[in-house]
Amino acid sequence: MKHPSVVRTDTGSSNQQFSSKKYLFDNPRNIKILLGCFYVSLFILLIIEFFISKHPHYPWEAWPEFCSIRLCGMCCPGRGRQIHPETVGKKTRGLL
Amino acid sequence: MTDPLPPFILFMAGALLVPFVTGKWKSFFLLFIPVLGLLNLLRMQEGVYWIVSFLDYHLVLGRVDRLSLLFGYIFHIISFIAILYALHVKDDIQHVAGLTYAGSALGAIFSGDLFSFFVFWEMLTVSSIFLIWARRTEASLASGFRYLLVHAAGGLCLLAGIVLHVNQTGSLSFDYLGLNGPGSYLIFLGFGLNCAWPILHPWLTDAYPEATITGTIFLSAFTTKVAVYALARAFPGTEALIWIGAVMTAFPIFYAVIENDLRRVLAYSLINQVGFMVCGIGIGTALAINGAVCHAFNDILFKALLFMSMGAVMYRTGKINGTELGGLYRTMPLTCIFCMVGAASISAFPLFSGFVSKSMVMDAAAAGHMRIIWFMLLFASAGVFHHAGIKIPYFAFFSHDSGMRPREAPVHMLLAMGIAAFLSIFIGVYPAPLYSLLPYPVDYVPYTAPHVLGQTQLLFFSALAFTLLLLSGIYPAEMRCINLDADWFYRKGARLFYRLMAKALNPINEACEQLFVNGFVRIIAHLSKDLIARLALIIMVTFWITTGLRGQRLRMKKENLYADVMAGACPIGIGAGAATGFLALVYLLMY
Amino acid sequence: MNLPNEEKMELTHEPVSGYRTAFFIAITIGVFYLGLILLKTL
Predict the structure, then answer these.
(1) B455, B519: one domain
(2) Domain end marker among B235, B270, B289
(3) Does a structural domain hold residue B498?
(4) What is the dihedral of CA B577, B578, B581, B583, to 10 degrees?
(5) For B500-554, how does the pLDDT look when each residue is reduced to its tens digit (9 = 90+)?
(6) Which of A77, B309, B332, B375 is the most buried (most CB within 10 A)?
(7) What are B234-253's pLDDT values in tens digits?
(8) In this complex, do A84 and B491 lie within 8 Å of one another by their Cβ atoms?
(9) What's the average model confidence in pLDDT over B49-59?
């Protein structure tokens, strides 16, 4: 049961009204421009480091591009134990 | 001019009056409460106020110092924002619960003794439950009960700790406690439960996403932050907190990345951010405590902003799963911008609030030569950007086109989000006013070229990681799934405990029933019925037989004697005697 | 475009050609360089 004042769905008829309108990222060219700007920013960030003196706490921070290379830590998206609601009661009975 | 009032009084009194104020004045009345409260708070000077005698103790309802004042300011600000955001709500229960909840949080942080702190701590639990139940769904009802049970256990733990501590030290004062006895460990654990420490955390990710849209804003601000305040007050510099905090920053990332419910993603990121605070409190230096408290202040704002933006999406679309949303930037551009401000703040982008506080904790860890902790915090900094900084705005407002074209959020919601966004940027750009409020003098400059560059590199290259993962198809798919968390151990563990107890205790129960109910009590009942008559018969029949009495006469005499004794007062006396004997036996067994 | 009320069970992310290679190259370089830094400094 949902409280009527809490959740309201404003889709439906308004969907027709907006469906033909084009928005910023509906044009693939704009996405390419955005990605291009992003890659250029990354390049600038890589270069600019050589012009800034560092005050590292640890010796590894003094190495060039250490901050950039830390992205490796983020390339390990985990996958925990996920259960589809449909399978509950079958093979996953023991887990829930 | 009158003296300032205890801050909680205004909120509690306001909550009581809410049902009696109707019409368009209600909105003004609701907004007036935190404004009046803040004006009241601004007049307070540091010191100890409102001392009440209770038994042999003095309860302090107003211990005002820099730490409590800072939390007091932010609790008033966020109350105003949350009330503004909830102006469309016609359900008085939510308004009353929200105001009571805020008042309880204020009462807790200004308490100068453990007893009044405990009372307000419990009021926090009770009032917050109604923000969950007010959604009136089966899931929220069940979740609210789980929340109640967990917090009742935590409250009992805290109470037991306080009793032991007072028994040990004779003091009710709520100051530095440290880990120095069973009482302090129990208090520590009680605080930790509300702080959502690892393994103890599932109540948060279970309950917050099930609360009402507006209730979640209140919930995100108070319970965990009061626990952070309590740890900062009672356990600064406790080494265990460093590791607990570091684990808190890291583990939610793995759950948040695979979570489909975007409000639950935010709940995980809430634990992640509280981890930074707990870690800072554990480090315990002036810089670390300042960083922890400053981050609590900022986190309340940007986390509320993120929850508000997701709430606005939920309000307009009725959906909150990543699989169902997407492309909403088209028709909800302002909500999208506010969400991105919140995302930038939580990710600690330069010029946003997270940047000026999170780095204080990181620097304190580095200054303390805590290498592993520093690496964990670094991983968590990038991780929070991954799940809260990118995932939330991307899956709600960009990603695939869900086909939904909802209207922009209502004006009052936009205003509330706007205030939170403005404060997040203002603090990020000009942190000096916030720094001047921190508990210790601040000698920290966040905006140095290497720091800004390092953080920007970290975030931009984390964004690159996300982009590459997404475009290479390696990023985990969003799925409508049940993700197993540490609650699995509770559910399975509780079931196992129940079975073990049933197997171990039920046979004892049955044996006792056989022995006492079916055996002993029956014999007692039987004896108390005609014991004296039977004793009389034994004695008299022996006597009569020795005197030569036989046959019909003997039988008649026996019947007469039995009837006479049974008709007398003796049986009642025997029953009472047996009952007294039984009670005496029980008493002896007990002692 | 999907229908508004269609409930997706799974939202997969379709790979864009070339990005998988770019991802593995970036990761390989990053891991080796990070390993080198930590080897030299820890």
Answers:
(1) no
(2) B235
(3) no
(4) -110
(5) 999 999 999 999 988 888 888 888 887 777 777 888 888 888 888 888 878 888 8
(6) B309
(7) 999 999 999 999 999 999 99
(8) no
(9) 88
Q: Are residues B220 and B257 in the same domain?
A: no
Each residue of C7-29: pLDDT tens digit? 677 788 888 888 899 888 888 88
pLDDT 10s digits, B303-315? 999 999 999 999 9
Which of B485, B520, B535 delimits the end of a domain? B485
H/E element, A82: strand A82-83
| Furthest CA-CA distance within chain A | 61
Answer yes or no: is B505 within a domain.
no
CA distance B276 to chain C (A): 24
Query: What mean pLDDT is reported for chain B?
Result: 92
Helix (H, G, I), strand (E, B) or coil at B343: helix
Model confidence over B562-578: pLDDT tens digits? 888 877 645 566 667 77
**Taking the domains of chain A in order of start, what are their residue ranges?**
25-70
Q: Domain span at residue B389?
A: 239-485
Contact state of C41 with A58 under an 8 Å Cβ cutoff: yes
Return all residues near B333 (Cβ < 8 A) that are at least 6 apart.
B408
Joined together, the tokens standing for residue B139 give 């899931």
Number of domains in chain B: 3
Q: Does B183 share its domain with B248? A: no
Q: Is A73 in contact with B378 (Cβ distance < 8 A)?
A: yes
Q: Within this chain, do residues B173 and B266 fall inside the same structural domain, yes or no?
A: no
Q: Is B202 on the interface with A (CB under 8 A)?
A: no
Based on the fold, state whether residues B520 and B463 are members of the same structural domain. Answer: no
Query: Which residues in chain A are contacts of C42 at CB distance < 8 A?
Result: 60
ipTM of the complex in this document: 0.85
pLDDT score recorded for residue B299: 97
Q: Angle at CA B580, nearest 5°, toward B576 and B586?
A: 145
C34 and chain B: CB distance < 8 Å anywhere?
no
Residues B301 and B187 placed together within one structural domain of the fold: no
B445 and B325, same structural domain? yes
Shared domain for B468 and B434, answered yes or no, is: yes
